[in-house]
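Protein: Monooxygenase
Species: Brachybacterium endophyticum
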Amino acid sequence: MTTTATSRTAPPTTATDAADPSAATGTPSPSWPEHPTTAEGWLERAQEVSDLLALDAVERDRANESPFQEVALLKAAGLVTLLGPPEFGGGGQTWETAYTVVRTIARGDGSIGQLLGYHYLWFWTAELVGTDEQRAAFARSATEGTWLIGGAVNPRDDDLTVADEGDELVFNGRKSFSTGGVVSDVTILEGVLQGTDDHVFTAVPTDQEGIVFAGDWDNLGQRLTESGSVRITDVRAPWSDALGYVDKTFHGSVYATLNVPAIQLVFANFYLGIAEGALERATAYTREKTRPWPFGGDDKDSADQEWYILEGYGRLQSTLWADASLIDRTGAAISEILHAPREQLTERRRGEIAVQVAASKLRIVEDGLEVTSRIFELTGARASANSVGLDIYWRNLRTHSLHDPLPYKKREVGEYALAGRVPEPTWYT
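Structure follows.
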């Protein structure tokens, strides 16, 4: 592909530059001279980044500023190129590892976990839709350029219009959501070719006059995801960058429809990370600050001896362990087919994976909302202080879990359980 992108002016590109105590992480970043060589090493790296992000996640959420420094930290740690080919400087890891990395980052900061998870999906767009030549070119450019990739692809809005002007395509329109926004280096655009029903995906540099972000993302949670609206005006891309097109004709496959279950499992993983982060923060608070109840007739010396607190945390922890097991199993299954030859995937197998993803998502949404709410009962009244910041977890999970109605996920699983039917590919299944 011919897409090129330059870094925006604000973000630094090394761990040393990212170590601004007044900005993203509150403490100096560690120096990472080289990439890990194993999945375990990458997960350790992700945990280090997550720990840094957790230090002032609440303060940064309240400030609600564009996360340039946070993205610089992801780049410095090598996490944005986790899926990239090693020969171009990438981590060469699988989607199974990428999902766990997203979850780990979300424990420290749900917004940054979402940014990274969406980036992984957009990084894989050429793999899903592109020709062999486009796949290789995009992987090299994105990896060598350490791009952070965003996307103006919101199916609930009208599609962008795409005009054919000889050797170029011209995109116009508006999207009410566009995760990645001004902190991205490249934006994935999707629209419908005028006069046809054909959809076109391409990648363009974010920093150009024709892409204008409104800066209007001011929601309850996930406040640092740059998910506001965007106006696309006369943005041009060569036909050679239209993913999957040869001589202006699209050549697709069932594999191309994995974009939806792949991103839906990204959701499940950063939901789980948010819930795990809430439980970790709550148990620490209980150990350090929660006082035992002195009027129960069976007084305890400390809160960690209270039977109802022990019972409560036992229930929440066992629930999240069960959810993690389901989500990990689903991640291993979809990772296998994402890395297998594209022509091997059948419609039936794709549908079965989509059902597993739906089951994973519905479980962690319901269980995660319970965890992020019930922790207040186990930490006590003083834990509701804004300075403690336990509210961030519920706000983050509640906000993004409204992405698409959960009852439809339950219906997908129910139809499979009762009749063996798998969902037809749509923008949400």
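Remarks: DSSP finds 13 helices and nine strands in the chain.
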